[in-house]
């Protein structure tokens, strides 16, 4: 997972799918950029989470984001990251973390002053995976 040194939360590596990319190619790129390692195995879909929010842009009525999750395996070695500015500002660090610790840590941050937008989504997915284990 990706740990934010600034906020203290855990999130899955990921991001947008570039034009012409498959989900597998996008995940491999994001794992390489955010974790500095290779996607070794791309497995079956775990599912998707659809979120709706008020848009930032005034030309739109609603913002919709679909986050896809896959079972996969990443390399054990973490090398140089290629982070976006906001990811650097949040102190993104790749980590191996116990699922129960990730869930409890993220849950403890729900009542913080400004939890990350993705926090509830990541808790939902982590808890779903925990039930599957």
Question: How would you characterize the overall build of this protein?
Answer:
With 133 residues, the protein is α+β, with helices and mostly antiparallel strands. The chain has helices spanning 23-35, 85-89, 99-108, 119-132; strands spanning 2-4, 10-11, 39-53, 63-74, 92-94. The strands form 2 sheets. Strands 2-1-5 form a 3-stranded antiparallel sheet. It has a two-stranded antiparallel ribbon with strand order 3-4. The longest helix is centred in the C-terminal third of the chain and has 14 residues, at 119-132. The radius of gyration is 15 Å and the shape is globular. The model has no long low-confidence stretch (mean pLDDT 95).
Give me some keywords for this one.
Nucleoside Triphosphate Pyrophosphohydrolase; alpha+beta; 5 strands; 133 residues; two-stranded antiparallel ribbon
Radius of gyration: 15 Å
What fold name goes in the CATH topology slot?
A: Nucleoside Triphosphate Pyrophosphohydrolase
**Morphology call:** globular
Strand order of the largest sheet: 2-1-5
In DSSP terms, counting alpha (H) and pi (I) runs of 4 or more, how many helices? 4
Query: What gap, in angstroms, lies between the N and C termini?
Result: 17 Å
